[in-house]
């Protein structure tokens, strides 16, 4: 007969005459108790083994019981203390007996009640008369405590005084513990099998079609799984940490009452710059940091709304209002029609402000976008050629710098960022303007996290907006760095990403 290894070991360790506890077999065979029990039940199914269960009761001293087992029971101490020096049958002061007996605190109470219960003498109006014939040695409670105190502290169930044991349990000196003991005995069939010879079946790691069709699977032993063994890490797909950050930002902004705006990545300079009251000779406009388009390089004249073009041109030349200044410099519509990858997402704000204004814009309004902006920067730990800008604006009557700062404080707090600083700045399209800085949690350095301000009338009037508008562009990557402690943005996106970082980065906000 072929059987799994553990079953063979159990059969060999079992006997036909004496029931053997499973624990003992485990110890002899070096198997786990669980494995031996499992094998025993399988062998029982095969009829080779009988498994019996019985409850075993064990007694042990409690902490208090242990003290009395060594120092004597309090009532015994009282009895000894109550023995008068002179005449054995004379009562003595109770206080004296307690003192002699070395009894203190709650032991006094315990001694008195048990002294009375066991009839060790009489206590009467402050005096105690011990019964000199009381047999301390013969006290069954004491005998039990002493057995349990010993090295082989096992009570022999046949010999033990049941009442005394029950009393000790009630007194909390002895604790009872019950356990189930499983024992195995070889059946006649088992004995026969052993005599005929039992072999260990080979171990199989995987079920194969052959094993199944041949029926051999019934004979073989399947290898056990070691669920604790190291396994190769499998990296499942997950959304990019920056994407998760962006989703979180969206949730926060929507929670703050903002609606999302979308718009073109490639746009006319008109929307990227001119509508923002950026002078056409502004360095950033023909600077190398702008990604111009080769084909098509411009859009047709018909693609820009003529009224808007006229109003923007007038603002550039002469400013707005009766005291308007403007730039008094030439303004060329062809220049405004040049196409480029947007260097900021403020073109979206412009388009939305202009479009909404046409539809009779009523404050308050709140809009945001989290979209890519493109700049021909020099790559370093904090700059990429493209980045995600968190653009946003609020239109309302009478906005102040306080509103702007309050909005940022509320926004960054959601990401646990409380140390933000504002630095006065200059943008052609906002007045006042502020750059925002945050402290990097790892390096402690202040890093720029955004730019903001209140749009100038020179920008808003041509768009047809009458209320105040505060606006900003924040870098998602910089927020990410502050929130996660990432030190180099190139680890996070671009061509040099650190896959390990991204795999292991749990973005917790
Ligand atoms: N466009 C600005 C951000 C900004 C938007 C709106 C108002 C003020 C500032 C930038 O890219 O830095």
Verbal overview:
- With 509 residues, the chain is an alpha+beta fold.
- It folds into three domains: 98 residues, Arc Repressor Mutant, subunit A, CATH 1.10.10.10; 111 residues, no CATH class; 187 residues, BirA Bifunctional Protein, domain 2 (2-Layer Sandwich).
- It is built from 21 helices and 19 strands.
- Strands 11-14-15-19-18-17-16 form a seven-stranded mixed β-sheet, sandwiched between helices. The protein has a three-stranded antiparallel β-sheet with strand order 2-7-3.
- Strand 16 and strand 17 form a beta hairpin.
- The radius of gyration is 45 Å and the shape is elongated.
- It starts with a strand and ends in a 5-residue tail after the last helix.
- The chain binds phenylalanine.
- The site of phenylalanine has 10 residues, from strand 18 and strand 19.
Please mark out the parts with pLDDT under 50 across 5 or more consecutive residues, or reply none: none
Work out the helicity level.
25-40%
Compute the separation of the termini in Å. 63 Å
Largest sheet: 7 strands, mixed
Based on secondary structure, the structural category is: alpha+beta
CATH architecture of the largest domain: 2-Layer Sandwich
Number of strands: 19
The bound ligands are:
phenylalanine
Number of domains: 3
How much of the polypeptide forms β-strand, as a percent range? Answer: 15-25%
How many DSSP helices? 21
CATH homology superfamily name of the largest domain: Bira Bifunctional Protein, Domain 2
Task: Report the C-alpha radius of gyration, rounded.
Answer: 45 Å
Question: Which CATH top level class of the largest domain fits?
Answer: Alpha Beta
Q: Whole-number average pLDDT?
A: 90
């Amino acid at each position: 007969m072929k059987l799994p290894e553990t079953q063979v070991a159990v059969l060999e360790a079992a006997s036909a005459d004496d029931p053997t506890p499973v624990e003992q077999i485990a110890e002899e065979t070096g198997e786990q108790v669980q494995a031996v029990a499992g094998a025993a039940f399988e062998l029982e199914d095969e009829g080779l083994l009988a498994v019996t269960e019985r409850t075993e009761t064990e007694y042990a001293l409690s902490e208090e019981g242990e003290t009395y087992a060594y120092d004597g029971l309090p009532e015994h101490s009282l009895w000894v203390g109550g023995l008068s020096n002179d005449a054995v049958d004379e009562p003595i002061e109770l206080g004296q007996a307690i003192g002699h007996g070395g009894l203190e605190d709650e032991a006094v109470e315990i001694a008195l009640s048990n002294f009375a219960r066991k009839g060790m003498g009489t206590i009467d109006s402050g005096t105690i008369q011990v019964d000199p014939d009381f047999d301390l040695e013969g006290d069954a409670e004491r005998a039990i405590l002493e057995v349990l105190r010993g090295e082989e502290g096992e009570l022999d169930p046949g010999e033990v005084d049941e009442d005394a044991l029950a009393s000790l349990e009630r007194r909390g000196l002895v604790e009872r513990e019950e356990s189930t003991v499983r024992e195995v005995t070889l059946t006649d069939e088992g004995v026969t099998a052993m005599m005929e010879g039992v072999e260990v079946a080979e171990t199989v790691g995987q079920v194969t079609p052959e094993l199944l069709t041949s029926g051999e699977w019934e004979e073989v032993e399947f290898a056990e799984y070691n669920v604790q063994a190291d396994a190769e890490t499998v990296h499942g797909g997950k959304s990019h940490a920056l994407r998760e950050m962006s989703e979180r930002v969206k949730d926060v902004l929507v929670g703050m009452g903002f609606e999302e705006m979308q718009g073109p990545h490639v746009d006319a300079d008109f929307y990227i710059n001119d509508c923002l009251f950026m002078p056409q000779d502004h360095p950033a406009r023909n600077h190398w940091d702008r990604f111009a388009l080769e084909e098509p390089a411009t859009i047709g004249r018909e693609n820009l709304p003529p009224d808007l073009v006229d109003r923007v041109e007038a603002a550039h030349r002469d400013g707005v209002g009766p005291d308007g200044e403007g730039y008094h410099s030439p303004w060329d519509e062809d220049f405004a029609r040049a196409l480029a990858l947007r260097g900021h997402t403020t073109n979206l704000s412009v388009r939305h402000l202009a479009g909404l204004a046409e539809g009779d814009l009523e404050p308050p309004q709140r809009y945001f976008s989290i979209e890519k902006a493109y700049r021909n920067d020099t790559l370093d730990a904090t700059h990429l050629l493209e980045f995600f800008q968190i653009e946003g604006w609020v239109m309302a009557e009478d906005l102040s710098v306080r509103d702007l700062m309050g909005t940022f404080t509320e926004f960054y707090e959601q990401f646990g960022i409380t140390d933000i600083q504002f630095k006065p700045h200059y943008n052609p399209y906002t007045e006042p303007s502020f750059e925002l800085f945050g402290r990097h949690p790892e390096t402690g350095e202040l890093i720029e996290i955004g730019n903001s301000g209140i749009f100038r009338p020179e920008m808003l009037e041509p768009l047809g907006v009458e209320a105040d508008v505060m606006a900003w562009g924040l870098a998602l990557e910089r927020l990410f760095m502050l929130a996660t402690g990432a030190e180099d943005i190139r680890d996070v996106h671009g061509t040099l990403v650190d896959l390990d970082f991204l795999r292991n980065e749990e973005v917790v906000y």
